[in-house]
Request: fold
Amino acid sequence: MKIIFTFDHKSLTATLYDNPAARDLLSLLPLDDLTIDDYGHNEKIAYLPRKLTGEGSELFDNEAAGDLCYFAPWGNLALFHAGYRWSNGLIRLGRLEGEFETLLKQGKFPLRIEPSMA
Reply:
């Protein structure tokens, strides 16, 4: 399943993996009235209206820019635009498609997340 993140008048598409947390995110969509903001030097984050299931979370490797993750302890999505390391509570939900230069624009923006109709 594909989902679309829209902020700063641009859109990013992500393909979700088939895991419990990704399916739980999908059940919340569409989501409006969210905010996406910079966190650290390598990601943008957005807090969800409720926490997702942590079922099926496990250690993963081969972390890379373009990963879409959920950080269970804080209840936020993490869209990585640079390298990062797995940490306890981080669940990989999917991958961003194409270029993700939109994530490099610094600042806080209103965010909409919706299922892709394509």
